[in-house]
Amino acid sequence: SKLTNLGHLEMTWRSRVHFHPLLVRILHKSRLRYYGKPEKKMDMPYQAYFEVADGSGMMSMVLWNSLCPEWYHSMKVGTVLLLAKYAIKSSYPFKTHPTPGDSQMKRFATIEICLNVRDPPTEISIIPEEMVKPEWGLPEVKYRFITRSELDDLPHNHSCDVIGLVTFVGRAERARKREHNEDFWLYRWAHAIDGTSDQPFILELFATSQPDVFERIHPMTYLVCTQMRVMTENPSRTVYLTTSNESQIFITGWHKGQPYTKDAKVKNFIQWTKTQSEADQIKKTVIGGYYPFPRPPDSFLKY
């Protein structure tokens, strides 16, 4: 069928009601958002954002309501989609934006693609990777992996991806989203090493929309965290990483077929793990318990 592209959509969307199909690759994926309220009677008040791209640039795509339980888990980073009968709307101004792995990519920020169950009923097709043709010109997924030795030089709120061997994972803890509110964030602390520094990555991992992975983070697993934010804890200058709205977490058993397996820093990490003795590393691992962070000073005088 006749296809359009994201750049053409941005130029012509106000003058059209129906749009030609789109062929795009998913580059980023947000956590699933529940926006239900007791007074509003909606069957499936869910929403998820994706950043999708073709040869012309990148745009946000929003999956709405009952399409979320049907499609959210099938739409992975790297998945190629053929979309027909979608809607175009002005973009929501307050949403978060991931940091693209390719800084040269053009971003179309004024509009977003809306996938709905009706008005119009969107047609979604997933194209298997082996059927994707180079002439389609779809961009590859790119990452911003850093090593632990590079972390201390990065500015506050910098976005990055990390891979490491888990040496500590804490219990799941809860924090109130807002004061006097019944909603909680669920999170846990983890340490991961990559052989480039004596210090581990300190990771504050909030439960994303991957409960199967979040609950199974154990010592000695290879942990990949994408779209993490650098946090500098003053005055101690302790640096840790926290998840963002677009973070994805993967552990041993989930890595196969993920686009990051081709990344040079990921390959270097795998080579390093082959030089390590599993028995020696297991002796240094810890699981569970209370993890006070940032650490209080050693003495009351310093306090």
Protein described:
This protein has 303 residues and is mainly β. It has two domains: 6-136, OB fold (Dihydrolipoamide Acetyltransferase, E2P) (Beta Barrel); 148-302, OB fold (Dihydrolipoamide Acetyltransferase, E2P) (Beta Barrel). 12% of the residues lie in helices and 34% in strands. It contains six helices and 16 strands. The strands form two sheets. Strands 1, 2, 3, 4, 5, 6, 7 and 8 form an eight-stranded mixed β-sheet that branches. The chain is globular and about 70 Å long.
What's the short version?
With 303 residues, the protein is mostly beta strands. It has helices at 6-12, 67-71, 148-151, 211-214, 264-273, 278-283, and strands at residues 22-29, 33-34, 46-54, 57-64, 80-84, 87-90, 107-115, 123-127, 159-169, 173-176, 184-193, 201-206, 222-233, 238-243, 249-250, 286-287. The radius of gyration is 21 Å and the shape is globular.
Which features does this protein show?
single chain; mainly beta; OB fold (Dihydrolipoamide Acetyltransferase, E2P); 2 domains; 16 strands; globular; RADX protein; single-stranded DNA binding; RADX; NA-bd_OB-fold
SSE map:
Layout: H1 6-12, E1 22-29, E2 33-34, E3 46-54, E4 57-64, H2 67-71, E5 80-84, E6 87-90, E7 107-115, E8 123-127, H3 148-151, E9 159-169, E10 173-176, E11 184-193, E12 201-206, H4 211-214, E13 222-233, E14 238-243, E15 249-250, H5 264-273, H6 278-283, E16 286-287
Parallel strand pairs: 4-7, 9-16, 12-14
Antiparallel strand pairs: 1-3, 1-5, 2-3, 3-4, 5-8, 6-7, 9-11, 9-13, 10-11, 11-12, 13-14, 13-15
InterPro entries: NA-bd_OB-fold, RADX
Organism: Hypocryptadius cinnamomeus
Protein name: RADX protein
